[in-house]
Design brief:
Helices cover about 45% and strands about 10% of the residues. By secondary structure, the chain is an alpha/beta fold.
Length: about 350
């Protein structure tokens, strides 16, 4: 069981200079939130952005209690979460002063952070009874981000949770300067990825497979999630940068520059971790995400287009038909005509 607020980092200097603990609604912290459907390259983008000096990538923070307390997953660094010094220090910062524990965190999340509860976030006057829990959970999220910044010494936190409801929750947190990164992948590529058996790499000797979905279901999810992320900046006023997976892999420097420019972040743009067709990644402290979060060293950068050969023609046509309006709006159909 992860102990909340009982362990301190043995040497905070190994993660950065650190900052004094402050109220979560105090000084502003920048959060780059990656949103979109799963299997779209969010783990790769998360780790690229997290390699920029001054940032800290935490993976899918929304999975923290489920993945660490229920499923007992490993941190991206390879350690169990309750043994990872980074997360022990973050949770001490976040939970101890908030009079909260893991069970309360999990209950609040289940009661607040779900897609069907988004109307509560947009029209609080209509759902006044839910507001105390919403406000408490927002304070907790603010403390988590502040704990990450405190322990790592970073000024920017990268959260690749992708979840729509979490994006709406973050839009209402004072002290959090939120910038959305809407990540899009060709739905046929995403659909094929959702059909594959993928080992989470949680254990050396045991196989734990990621969820799988039929192409039709993933296509409908692709439409729903991307439509919601289109609506997010309109409804909240939060700025957004739309990134396409295929362009990210082909020209990562340009895409990273666009994100940092749009978010007005004056960070180091030399990107020494990027080369001609490769990226070099160090160990991180990510929660959830693709199994590549455990990989380090030099990795090849290339678009995964296996769907063109391996996704049955019937499924390709079905996904194309179900997603046609957005598929055309994003330019995927025009690219095929060239």
């Amino acid at each position: 069981m992860l102990r909340m607020g009982t362990e301190r980092h043995p040497d905070r200097s190994q993660h950065g200079a650190g900052r004094a603990r402050v109220d979560p609604y105090g000084s502003e912290i920048t959060v780059l939130y990656i949103g979109g459907l799963g299997r779209s390259g969010s783990t790769l983008l998360d780790r690229m952005l997290g390699s920029v000096p001054g940032t800290m990538a935490v993976g899918e923070l929304v999975r923290l209690t489920q993945r660490t307390l229920v499923e007992h997953e490993r941190c991206g660094c390879g350690e169990r979460f309750h043994e990872c010094p980074f997360w022990s220090a973050v949770l001490a910062d976040a939970y101890a002063p908030a009079d909260i524990d893991a069970a309360t965190h999990r209950r609040l999340q289940q009661d607040v952070d779900r897609t069907r509860y988004i109307p509560r976030l947009l029209r609080p006057a209509w759902f006044h009874r839910a507001q105390p829990d919403i406000e408490r959970y927002r304070r907790l999220l603010a403390r988590l981000y502040r704990g990450v910044a405190d322990v790592s010494g970073a000024s920017v936190v990268i959260d690749s949770s992708k979840q729509v409801s979490t994006a709406f929750l973050l839009a209402g947190i004072p002290g959090v300067r939120l910038h959305m990164v809407h990540l899009v992948r060709d739905p046929r590529g995403a659909a094929y990825s959702w059909t594959k058996q993928v080992d989470k790499k949680l254990e050396q000797n045991d196989t734990h497979l990621m969820h799988r979905f039929r192409p039709g279901r993933s296509a409908l999810s692709w439409v729903g999630w991307n439509t919601a992320f289109h609506a997010h900046p309109v409804l909240t006023g939060v700025p957004v940068t739309r990134v396409f997976y295929e362009r990210l892999v082909a020209d990562p420097r340009t895409e990273l520059d666009r994100i940092l420019d749009d978010a007005a972040l004056g960070l180091d743009r030399r990107y020494p971790f990027l080369g001609n067709g490769w990226v070099e990644l160090g160990a991180g402290h990510s929660v959830g995400g693709n199994p590549m979060r455990f990989d380090s060293g030099r990795l090849e950068l290339r678009a995964d287009t296996a769907w063109r050969e391996h996704l049955p023609t019937r499924s390709q046509r079905a996904v194309t038909a179900l997603t046609a309006p957005l598929l055309a709006a994003y330019g995927y159909l025009r690219r095929e005509e060239r």
